[in-house]
Amino acid sequence: MDAWTDYPITVLGDKPHEIAPIRKVWVSSYDGDKYCVVMIDGHFFWIKIGYLYAKPGRQGEVPTINPDKLQKIGDALT
């Protein structure tokens, strides 16, 4: 599932607590609670679902992704 985030990722050159660019991500899995595994530029990261958006934008300006549409990690492995 595609999504977008503006969460700062230091491995990609972002500085903590500073505005990060809006990035398109691919959501690979969901823990069923609050974290998703996403792929950005070939790297995998855990990001809270509240920082993943249904369309490009910033937190509070666009809707977050719908967790009901995500496949839980356990479901993906079976």
Characterization of this structure:
Helix content is 6%, strand content 31%. It has one domain. It has one helix spanning 73-77, and strands at 2-5, 23-30, 35-40, 43-48. It is mostly beta strands and 78 residues long. It has a four-stranded antiparallel β-sheet, with no helix packed on it. The protein is built from one helix and four strands; from the N terminus they run ββββα. The radius of gyration is 12 Å and the shape is globular. The longest helix has 5 residues, at 73-77.
Rg calc: 12 Å
Q: The biggest beta sheet, please?
A: 4 strands, antiparallel
Helix percentage range: under 10%
Number of strands: 4
Number of self-contained structural domains: 1
Q: Number of helix segments?
A: 1
Report strand order across the widest sheet: 1-2-3-4
